């Protein structure tokens, strides 16, 4: 069921999303060669708790038998890791790496979800292009995030933009509605047909999140039951914001 948020609920969504943004900012400022993804995790959790929120990813159930709940406050996915990387003292960032940080702040009954891919020092030009296209794909997609449009209009435009630039979108994972639950309907794939899917209405809050691979679209899951890597070993990027459908332009809740 797709939930339509009331005015009061939207106020709470804005606040959860503001805290998620602040946590990303704190992580971004800390990123440098030599820091571990475990330290970044602690920084994000501290920032969320300081602002009255809890990290919703921590303890999130995997749904797979024998796989423990997610242990981190953030997902920290380095280089060929696409999503759901587990923060670790053993993963030390070095010059030329990229790291995708996906985090969800839960405050006063509502969730704010955003992801960024950051660069560590200087990275090569092609990897930078991957990051740029991933972020641009989000902004291309939300041009269609308007009352009366169909969900497929967003999905299609994201997939088309990524492929036009020679990269691949991940097919097995997708964006989602968000609110009282971290994952609500609808599912929002990063590909699809324009003119299909639900009709967008004011009060819908959606997490739109292009996940883009430099090479082909195959992915694998590591034995930890969480980390998703690219099958061909090429780099992957992720960019996500929680948005609100309004009477006019969409509001990006996880940006200031
Ligand atoms: Mg997310």
Which properties best describe this structure?
5-stranded antiparallel β-sheet, Creatine Amidinohydrolase, binds magnesium ion, alpha+beta, 4-stranded antiparallel β-sheet
H/E series: HHEEEEEHHEEEEEEEEEE
CATH-defined fold name: Creatine Amidinohydrolase
CATH architecture call: Alpha-Beta Complex
Query: Over the alpha carbons, how many angstroms does the gyration radius reach?
Result: 17 Å
Name the average pLDDT: 98
What's the shape?
Answer: globular
Annotated CATH homologous superfamily? Creatinase/methionine aminopeptidase superfamily
Unreliable parts: none
Helix amount: 25-40%
Identify the strand order in the major beta sheet: 8-7-9-14-15
What's the main sheet like? 5 strands, antiparallel
Total beta strands: 15
Tell me the count of domains: 1
Distance between the termini: 29 Å
- The number of helical segments is 4
Text of the CATH class: Alpha Beta
Percentage of residues in DSSP E strands: 15-25%
Q: Kindly name the structural category.
A: alpha+beta
Mind explaining what this structure looks like?
The chain has helices spanning 7-30, 37-50, 125-142, 151-164; strands at residues 54-55, 75-78, 81-83, 98-107, 110-119, 168-169, 175-177, 184-188, 205-208, 211-213, 219-221, 228-230, 236-238, 241-244, 251-252. The chain is α+β, with helices and mostly antiparallel strands. The protein has one domain: Creatine Amidinohydrolase (Alpha-Beta Complex), CATH 3.90.230.10. The longest helix has 24 residues, at 7-30. It is globular, with a radius of gyration of 17 Å. The protein binds magnesium ion.
